[in-house]
Amino acid sequence: MSADRTTGFTDIDHQHWSLRYLPPWMRPYGRLARWDRPIGIWLLLFPCWWAVALAAAPHWDNMVGWMALFAVGALAMRGAGCTWNDIVDRKVDAQVERTRGRPLPSGEVKLHQALIWMALQSLVGVAILFKFNKFAGGVALASLLLVAIYPTMKRLTSWPQVVLGLAFNWGALVGYAALTGKLSWAAFALYAGGVAWTMVYDTIYAMQDQRDDAVIGVRSTARRFAGAPRHWIGLFAVLALGSWTLAGVGAPLGAGYFAGLAAVALHFGWQIATLKPSDPAACLAKFKANAQVGWLLLAAIFAGQWT
Question: Of 6, 23, 65, 169, which is most buried, counting CB atoms within 10 Å of its CB?
Answer without folding.
Answer: 169
